[in-house]
Amino acid sequence: MNPDTDLAPAVESILEAARERTGGDEVVDVDARSLPDAIAQAEADDRVPVIAEVKPTSPTSDGTRDDDPVELAEAMVAGGATAISVLTEPSHFGGSPEALTRIREAVDVPVLRKDFVLREKQLDTVEADLLLLIVRFLETDALEELIGAARERGFQPLVEVHDRSELEAALEVGADIIGVNNRDLARLEVDLETFESVAPHAPDEVTLIAESGVSSPADVRRMREAGADALLVGSAIMDHGAADSDVTENTRRLVSAETEDET
């Protein structure tokens, strides 16, 4: 993949900052909490498996949430979140590895480190159960090496794709947890048809996650009907435009989308 092709200026800026970041001084090993097991438990409990995202801000959000990240994560779990995603990118999303560490100590669900990892040393930044790797930003050999290195450390790699060709690249290097991002990286526009066009080509044994653009119970049902095993939801839960928004209720509304009528 060519990481510099058809990217929005904001994404190029994020990548430039990522290239300059290093990792920790020592190899990080983790005893990971299983995302597939957590998804299965949510299903057994009649909850939609939702990975709720602690994201203080982003280039596409309307504002910033200054709440304590641990309190936000605990509220999401109280609302039924299956897992927590934590932005650790500091320059554009207001995240930090320290926030992830605090959250992972406070909750008992899997925690995803969402960042822009480009080389192996950056794996050794913080313990997390899952680690995001984005196909668009990595050559095939580098992606394969990072998946292997992440697994050696105990991480579960969540490999993000945006179209069918990227899905094929992810499958070629053995990805078994795959996220389909509905946000286009060139225009930063969201289209749920992205997931619907890619999902039919994913093998049944892959854990498939719909990312971005889910804002209502109707969106939840649409993505689930298209084959999503889980959904990664950030802005609709964080609600950056309303600092006093009830994160627990926002989460509960989505995880119960298949068992309650939309109100």
TrEMBL record:
Keyword annotations from UniProtKB, A to Z: Amino-acid biosynthesis, Aromatic amino acid biosynthesis, Decarboxylase, Lyase, Tryptophan biosynthesis
EC number: 4.1.1.48
One function term, GO molecular function aspect: phosphoribosylanthranilate isomerase activity
PROSITE patterns reported in the protein's UniProt record: IGPS
GO biological process: L-tryptophan biosynthetic process
Known catalytic reactions: 1-(2-carboxyphenylamino)-1-deoxy-D-ribulose 5-phosphate + H(+) = (1S,2R)-1-C-(indol-3-yl)glycerol 3-phosphate + CO2 + H2O
One Pfam family cited in the UniProt record for this chain: IGPS
Region span, Disordered: 243-263
Metabolic or biological pathway: Amino-acid biosynthesis; L-tryptophan biosynthesis; L-tryptophan from chorismate: step 4/5
Start and end residues of each Indole-3-glycerol phosphate synthase domain: 28-244
Similarity field: Belongs to the TrpC family.
NCBIfam families for this protein: Indglycph_syn_Halo_TrpC
The protein's name: Indole-3-glycerol phosphate synthase
Organism for this UniProt entry: Haloterrigena alkaliphila
Lineage summary: Archaea, Methanobacteriati, Methanobacteriota, Stenosarchaea group, Halobacteria
